[in-house]
Amino acid sequence: PAVSPRVSEAPLSPSPSSSAIFSPVLRSVLSLRTFPARSRVCLAGIVPANITSVSLMKLWINLMILSVAKKGAVLLVARLYGIPRLYRRCLEFNRFISRKSPARRQLLNYYTRTVFRLPNTIYDKFVKPKRVTPH
To answer: What DSSP assignment string belongs to 111-133?
Structure first.
């Protein structure tokens, strides 16, 4: 088996020749003392030298768009297939995986019910207008 070389726990300080390679953002991340030396060396090896804060922002925006698109796709499939049918299929799957444990089945059914009711709960709590009763 190959043995990885030991990395000292000393803080990573870029030499004058390597400081031109690292972007200011990367240098500030690598200078944090919360990272052990091994993590800092790994970060230095995988992050491209031409990374900028603008490219990091574009990456962040793309990840957020992908996250919203995935949630939208799941919601679309649920709407097309039908929420009640999807709920029944989840309960059938729970019965299948917890055949031998009724307590586990009950717990999984509770979690399934909670997850399916969560959007309505959030709507009722934050979005739904409060009724004002006249005196």
So the answer is: HHHHHHHHHHHHIIIIISPPP--
